[in-house]
């Protein structure tokens, strides 16, 4: 997909596209009286079921797509536009239309951004392992923006950065585990740090992790021939603009490059999708790359907790006890509840590097999938301002979040007879997992835990994903960084504006 943003029509378009809601054309469409009659007739036909979404008819002598901008149920108006643009791009490519004109002079900046995201999503494909690759027809979309031309060009540049990050996350998640071991993930992170301005990297291997007491990684990873790593990436966007904000957002991502369940072995049918158990780390890496590239004036770090949960002669045994970085002892009740063990190290690292706000994200529990499915991510937070920011930023990015309770009534089920804690509770699986993680959150730190088990990877078509990794969370993290750069999250009257 190519984008050409211009103030006026160039005359090069081979087709037009009109977004509509019910019987109303959206944005600007300059038509003759005869054209108005033709459009009205088509919209009447769509309303009566004679025509359908993406109807391709001639209006004023030019082929025209009619795109329903309110087709899906349960999504926001911005997501309607994303979905409409996504379908348009797919159909235009299928019909091999070289240049499609979109009249968007009356679109608001957020609406335009949603449309460009939708067009961009249509380009994604993961065919690295196909012996025969199918080339998609490349369509140029001419955006007639009128007086918004300069502003829309800047938005399109930002979308290109965000989409590059989303593609990075999706490609990492979709890659088979044999080709993305913890060590190979580290190399990808090093490459990104090398070619991204103002992004530093620190890597701890298994020996260093054990020496420094990050025993969550060591405990989970010791059964595999592929050792664990913890990667810390840091970006400080406050220095170039001399901001004095003390806020430091640390994103902690679960990076289980494959999860067999360990000795508490998973069922065979659950295994293939375990390539996605590193979605949290992939999302964290992609987000910080975009944040640094966009030069958002805020301090952000990402901690990638990389390991492989495998079965071997040295695998952790159910009942084993280890001492976590913060000094608490943990009995491993279930080796398939391993994500929270590596995250305990990531949370400790976030405290060591001075986090004021932490977001950890992980494909953590099947309980969350059963509770909220594939369309909504459940999250837990100890801070109301951060929780509101997550929901609001998610809405701006067409990513749905639902605040879940940190219900202390279940906390006693995490107590162990011999250790301070055990890694599973008896009830409310997703809540108990969050309560366990809370035990490792540094004091006086705002924290949110995102359980993206349902939203990170889908096995059927959902929104802009045919199958596999969705890239969920990348945009919300970028938006959260923007929000924090505008001032304290508690300042609801700040000057922060979303696009």
What does this protein structure show overall?
There is one protein chain. By secondary structure, this protein is an alpha/beta fold. The protein has 2 domains: 154 residues, Leucine Aminopeptidase, subunit E, domain 1, CATH 3.40.220.10; 311 residues, 3-Layer(aba) Sandwich (Aminopeptidase). The relative contact order is 0.11. Helix 7 packs antiparallel against helix 9 and helix 8 packs across helix 13. The protein is built from 13 helices and 20 strands.
How far the N terminus sits from the C terminus, by CA atoms, comes to 21 Å
Shape: elongated
Q: How much is the radius of gyration in Å? A: 24 Å
Largest sheet: 8 strands, mixed
Helix content range of the residues, please? 25-40%
Give a count of the beta strands, DSSP E runs of length 2 or more.
Answer: 20
- Helix/strand class: alpha/beta
Uncertain regions spanning at least 5 consecutive residues: 493-499
CATH architecture of the largest domain: 3-Layer(aba) Sandwich
- List the strand order in the largest sheet: 8-9-11-10-14-18-15-16
- The percentage of residues in β strands lies in 15-25%
Number of domains: 2
Number of helices: 13
Enter the CATH topology name of the largest domain.
Aminopeptidase
Which CATH class of the largest domain applies here? Alpha Beta
CATH superfamily of the largest domain: Zn peptidases
Mean pLDDT: 95
